[in-house]
Every structure is written in structure tokens, then in C-alpha cells.
């Protein structure tokens, strides 16, 4: 665990207090109402033992098989009582709630030799790390609807260090498993659970719609490779709110496919809301990309607090990606101790193979960043478009990024156009102040 539990608890309380106001708290979580289940079963009814040693894979699979085939009206809640329940990977089913009581831990086995393999995602064409298939996520759902993962802040522990070591030692045969992944699913709620030590990405909804992730804590050591917090991927109507994330990679990263495979699949990520998220990472706080070949549009991120960051806000793509990044609004961000405050770049990320089209250039336009305050920021910002595909409509307003030293280094910019207003230190000459009242940024300032 990357921070003492007391720090996590204090952070969650601070988030809750910060969200209180005289009026009603603004939330997007109503897109998927929380479902109450009359029918309830316990994992112990199926022989599970929470001693941290007994392997309970058979119990989890039998309990979920029962939920799937009995089809109780209104669905079924699977109760995980206090204890440490060791298990291999398992699949969820529609119309169920996975409920972790206080003190309940679902812990992944570290016997990786027989971990199931599944096909690569069509928008990636191969595993994200290795050619071929990929290891199935620890908790997996495909083609589901009406699924809830919640409880009393119980823990889902991926025990990822064995996977991290394989990655470091270059002994991985296939791409590491995510902690939780939903594919082609809708009406998903994930709340009030602690996720820790994921082998790879933590929460990955891909080809999904109507997803709410709220009141979660996601933890992994800062040196754990690729342990992204929440990665909405080719998904729509996603709400991420009121959460604490401290991991080894981007806290929240919006994606939509990889080069020629993402272009061919053609499913964008859209209508993504990220609100009241606090966290720390050696990489990015709020990220778009770099896999954006299906397009990313209509993303709102606000009231974000970041500490000890690599990059506060990172919008990233590359030649060969194709797709688009447009109508992105990020506001009310506080960051403290960051190597770079803001980075919008067209030369980030690798390629799945040699078959990508270098002439497939991404379109980046309509990026609004406002009300951003940074302390101890080593370098304020970089905006680097592509020569044959300049970034347009980049709007910066009310941004103050203060350096750790008395004099902060300047911005770096190329192949970009847009406007800036009240930005300290002053950004690049390509961002003008003369047209903000009449230009493309007028509606945002």
C-alpha cells in the first residue's frame, strides 16, 4: 500500500467535506441508479474460507453460476463477509451486486502459470504489452448489464508484485491482467471499495456505456509499472467522482484504441465526467490518450487535487494514431510538486506494430484549461502539435503555475494556435490575447 491507511481515510474525508456546499452537490452519478437486491447469498454458502490461504476460485464461480442461472427477479447480491478470500480470476454476470463488507478482502492468487488467456481487444489488435492475447482481468465482465461492485470499503487486492517483476525481468509471455475490466457492458456501478496492487490497469471499462465509478480508493506503489487508476476506453457516459488514487501511472486516462486497429474499430470515448478526484503519481493526473485512434470528445474534468506528480494534465497522441481529441474542458485544478504542469503533445506513445499509417494524423482542437493553480511546478507547460496537423483552439485562462525556484522556466510551444488570458508564467507567442473575445475561445473565457 503506497500510503498509510490513515492518510487514505483522511483524504477520503477531505474529499467528502470539500464536496459539501450550501446547495446540492453536483454529481453525474444519477446516470446509473444504485440497485437494491432483495435476493442475497454469501460466498461462505458455497464453501469459501476467508483465511487468506484457502483457494476459493471454485466457490466464487459456483456462486456466480447460481446467480446467472436462477435469475432472481431484481438480481442477486453476493455478500463477501470479513476475512481474506484468496481466489483466481472470476467472471461476473448481469443483474448482480458484488458486496464487500468492512474487513472483507478478495485477494488474487499469485499462481500465474494457469491464469486464463483471452483474445486481444479489437481496437488494440494485440495485447497492450505483448503480441497475441492477454491474461483475463482478475474480476471480469463481458456483455453484461446492471452490475454493481460496492460495499463498506472492503478491498480487492491484485497482489500485483509478481506480475510487476515479470515485466521488469522481461519474462512476460502475454499482457498482464487488469484488476477489474468490463467489456461491451452497460449500467455499471463501482463504489465504496478499495482497489490495490493491480497487476496492470486497475479499472478498465471498454466498449461500455453508462458507467459510474464513485467513492473508490485505488492504491499501488509509485514504482509499480502501468498501474493506471481508471481508464475509460471507447466508452460513453462515464462518471468518475469523489475518489482517491495513488498509483504508478496515470490516475485517470481516457482512451479509444491503438493506431490502425482503433481507427478501424472506430468507437470513440465521449461524455466523460471526472470530478472531485485527488491523487498522486509519477505520471499524469488527468490524461487523454495516448491511445485515441477511435476519437475522444466531450470530456469534463473539474475540482481535481494533485500532489507529487509527474505531469498534472497530459493530453497525448502521436502520428499514426488518427482519430481526434476535441471539446475537452479541464478546470479548477490544484497541483503541488509536479515536474510539469500541463503537457499537450503529438509525439507520445508507441505503436502496436510496423503496419501503422504515419499519415494518419490526429486532430486536436477545442481544448480548454482554466482555473489551474500549481505550487512547486518545475516546468509550467509544453504544447507541441504536429507540423502537418497543428493543434487548434487551445484555450488557457486563469492559470498560475509557480516554480520550486524563484524563477520558473518558460513554456515550450510549436504548431499550435489558440488564446491565453491571465496565465502565469506567460505561455508561448502562438497563444494570443487579442482574439479571445471574438475567437474560438470566447465561449470558454
From TrEMBL:
Q: Which Pfam families match?
A: Glyco_hydro_28
Q: Which organism is it from?
A: Erythroxylum novogranatense
Task: Kindly indicate where the leader peptide sits in this chain.
Answer: 1-18
Q: Which Gene3D superfamilies does the record associate with it? A: Single-stranded right-handed beta-helix, Pectin lyase-like
Q: Which UniProt keywords apply?
A: Cell wall, Glycosidase, Hydrolase, Secreted, Signal
Q: Which GO terms describe its biological process?
A: carbohydrate metabolic process
Tell me which PANTHER family the record gives: PECTIN LYASE-LIKE SUPERFAMILY PROTEIN (PTHR31339:SF3), PECTIN LYASE-RELATED (PTHR31339)
Q: Which GO terms describe its molecular function?
A: polygalacturonase activity
Question: Chief subcellular site?
Answer: secreted
Know the name of this protein? Pectin lyase-like superfamily protein
Q: Where in the cell is it found?
A: Secreted, Cell wall
Q: Which family does it belong to?
A: Belongs to the glycosyl hydrolase 28 family.
Amino acid at each position: 500500500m503506497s500510503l498509510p491507511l490513515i492518510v487514505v481515510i483522511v483524504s477520503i474525508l477531505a474529499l467528502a467535506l470539500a464536496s459539501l456546499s450550501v446547495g446540492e452537490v453536483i454529481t453525474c452519478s444519477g446516470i446509473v441508479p444504485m440497485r437494491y437486491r432483495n435476493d442475497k447469498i454469501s460466498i461462505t454458502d458455497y464453501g469459501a474460507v476467508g483465511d487468506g490461504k484457502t483457494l476459493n476460485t471454485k466457490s466464487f464461480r459456483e456462486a456466480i453460476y447460481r446467480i446467472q442461472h436462477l435469475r432472481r427477479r431484481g438480481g442477486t447480491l453476493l455478500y463477501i463477509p470479513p476475512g481474506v478470500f484468496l481466489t483466481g480470476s472470476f467472471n461476473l454476470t448481469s443483474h448482480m451486486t458484488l458486496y464487500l463488507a468492512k474487513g472483507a478482502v478478495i485477494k488474487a492468487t499469485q499462481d500465474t502459470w494457469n491464469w486464463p488467456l483471452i483474445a486481444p481487444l479489437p481496437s488494440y489488435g494485440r495485447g497492450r504489452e505483448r503480441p497475441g492475447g492477454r491474461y483475463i482481468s482478475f474480476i471480469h465482465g463481458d456483455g453484461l448489464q446492471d452490475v454493481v461492485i460496492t460495499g463498506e470499503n472492503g478491498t480487492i487486492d491484485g497482489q500485483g508484485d509478481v506480475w510487476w517483476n515479470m515485466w521488469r525481468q522481461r519474462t512476460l509471455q502475454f499482457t498482464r491482467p487488469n484488476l477489474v475490466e468490463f467489456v461491451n457492458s452497460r449500467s455499471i456501478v463501482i463504489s465504496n471499495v478499495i482497489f490495490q496492487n493491480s497487476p496492470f490497469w486497475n479499472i478498465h471499462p471498454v466498449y461500455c456505456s453508462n458507467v459510474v465509478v464513485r467513492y473508490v480508493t485505488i492504491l499501488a506503489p509509485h514504482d509499480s509499472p502501468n498501474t493506471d487508476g481508471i481508464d475509460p476506453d471507447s466508452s460513453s457516459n462515464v462518471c468518475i467522482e469523489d475518489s482517491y488514487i495513488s498509483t504508478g501511472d496515470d490516475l485517470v486516462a481516457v482512451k479509444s484504441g491503438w493506431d490502425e486497429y482503433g481507427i478501424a474499430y472506430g468507437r470513440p470515448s465521449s461524455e466523460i465526467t471526472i470530478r472531485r478526484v485527488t491523487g498522486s503519481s509519477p505520471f499524469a493526473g488527468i490524461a487523454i490518450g495516448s491511445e485515441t485512434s477511435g476519437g475522444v470528445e466531450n470530456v469534463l474534468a473539474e475540482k481535481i487535487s494533485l500532489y507529487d506528480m509527474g505531469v498534472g494534465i497530459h493530453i497525448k497522441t502521436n502520428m499514426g494514431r488518427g482519430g481526434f481529441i476535441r471539446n475537452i474542458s479541464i478546470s479548477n485544478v490544484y497541483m503541488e510538486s509536479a515536474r510539469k504542469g500541463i503537457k499537450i503533445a503529438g509525439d507520445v506513445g508507441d505503436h502496436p506494430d510496423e503496419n501503422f499509417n504515419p499519415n494518419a494524423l490526429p486532430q486536436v482542437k477545442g481544448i480548454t484549461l482554466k482555473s489551474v493553480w500549481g505550487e512547486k511546478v518545475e516546468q509550467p507547460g509544453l504544447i507541441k502539435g504536429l507540423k502537418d496537423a497543428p493543434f487548434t483552439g487551445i484555450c488557457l485562462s486563469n492559470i498560475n503555475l509557480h516554480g520550486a525556484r524563484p524563477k520558473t522556466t518558460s513554456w515550450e510551444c510549436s504548431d499550435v494556435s489558440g488564446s491565453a488570458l491571465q496565465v502565469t508564467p506567460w505561455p508561448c507567442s502562438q497563444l494570443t490575447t487579442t482574439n479571445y473575445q471574438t475567437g474560438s475561445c470566447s465561449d470558454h473565457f
